[in-house]
């Protein structure tokens, strides 16, 4: 499949990019550098313009600065997850990626990964800038994500890009939940919130737990079949599997928190308390965008 954002660099620029990317072991990154930059600029531009658009909600102006920043981050996250799902889904049908699950490359696959790298580079920047709020662990999460997605340009695991990007299917519902819990009561009808909550739990369980662990199992089998291939040094599958399984088990942790929160809400409803607990506590809520 073709990369519809591909451009032809001037010869001198192309030579320089090729030399640098070959030197760092990512030869297929060179044709996609501009897409990484474009993605980063897109997401940071949305973040910077966030206060302009989000001020349409009167409650936004009265939020603490930390909550306003997190509101802007969730807006970027919502755009990113919808965009990356739309980009990743066609890659399932890319014949060039089906040839080899571990070492295949396609121009379209490179486009998908470029936007993933651009987003997680932006996410790492934001996590570092506001590290006092989000903590060092979330900065490490962003940097690790960038590293894993960059490895696809060796090329390596480009076939699995759309597989694991399908984790994002639950993110739109997570963001809608976050927004509704920070807007004035009745801004979003209660029935809409209930349906969104059910879809959040269902999509999180199916996409991140069922699909996530099943895909990890298939990936491990592919690694086993390719063991000893000189294109796959020992550290490479170890790093990828450690990152992938860490995220899978983190998703189990988050899902358990969701279930407990649902139980809190049901208990609260039985006692007829007016202030039903949210799906996440306030501290979890502040950091909730990292569940993506």
Explain what this protein looks like in three dimensions.
The chain crosses the membrane at residues 36-57, 69-93, 105-122, 134-153, 159-180, 192-214, 234-255. InterPro entries: TLC-dom, TLCD. This is TLC domain-containing protein. By secondary structure, this protein is mostly helical. The chain has one domain. 71% of the residues lie in helices and 0% in strands. Helix 4 (65-91) runs antiparallel to helix 6 and helix 10 packs antiparallel against helix 11 (190-225). The chain is globular and about 65 Å long. The two termini are 27 Å apart.
Overview in brief:
The chain has helices at residues 11-23, 33-54, 58-62, 65-91, 95-98, 107-129, 131-134, 136-150, 161-165, 171-182, 190-225, 235-270, 282-286.
Distance between the termini: 27 Å
Count of discrete alpha- or pi-helical segments spanning 4 or more residues: 13
* Radius of gyration, whole Å: 20 Å
What does the main sheet amount to? none
Strand proportion, as a percent range, falls in under 5%
| Strand element count | 0
What portion of residues is helical?
Answer: over 70%
Low-confidence stretches: 281-289
Shape: globular
Domain count: the total is: 1
- The H/E string reads HHHHHHHHHHHHH
Mean pLDDT: 88
Structural class: mainly alpha
Characteristic terms for this protein:
about 290 residues, mainly alpha
């Amino acid at each position: 499949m073709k990369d519809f954002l591909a451009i032809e660099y001037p010869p001198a620029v192309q030579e320089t990019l090729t030399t640098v990317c070959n030197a760092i072991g990512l030869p297929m990154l060179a044709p996609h550098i501009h897409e990484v930059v474009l993605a980063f600029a897109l997401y940071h531009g949305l973040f910077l313009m966030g206060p302009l658009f989000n001020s349409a909600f009167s409650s936004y102006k009265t939020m603490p600065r930390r909550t306003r920043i997190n509101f802007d981050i969730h807006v970027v996250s919502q755009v990113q997850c919808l965009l990356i799902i739309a980009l990743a889904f066609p890659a399932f049908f890319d014949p060039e990626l089906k040839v080899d699950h571990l070492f295949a490359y396609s121009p379209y696959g490179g486009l998908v990964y470029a936007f993933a790298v651009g987003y997680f580079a932006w996410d790492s920047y934001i996590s570092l800038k506001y590290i006092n709020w989000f903590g060092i662990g979330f900065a490490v999460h962003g940097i690790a994500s960038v590293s894993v997605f960059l490895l696809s340009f060796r090329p390596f695991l480009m076939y699995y890009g759309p597989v694991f990007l399908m984790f994002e299917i639950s993110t739109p519902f997570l963001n809608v939940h976050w927004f509704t819990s920070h807007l004035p009561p009745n801004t979003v009808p209660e029935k809409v919130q209930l349906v969104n909550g059910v879809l959040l739990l269902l999509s999180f369980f199916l996409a991140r737990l069922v699909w996530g662990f099943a895909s990890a199992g298939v990936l491990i089998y592919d690694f086993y079949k390719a063991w000893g291939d000189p294109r796959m040094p020992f550290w490479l599958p170890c790093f990828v599997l450690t990152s992938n399984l860490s995220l899978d088990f983190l998703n189990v942790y988050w899902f358990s928190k969701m279930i407990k929160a649902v139980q809190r809400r049901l208990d609260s409803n039985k006692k007829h308390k007016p202030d039903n607990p949210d799906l996440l506590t306030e501290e979890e809520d502040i950091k909730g965008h990292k569940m993506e």
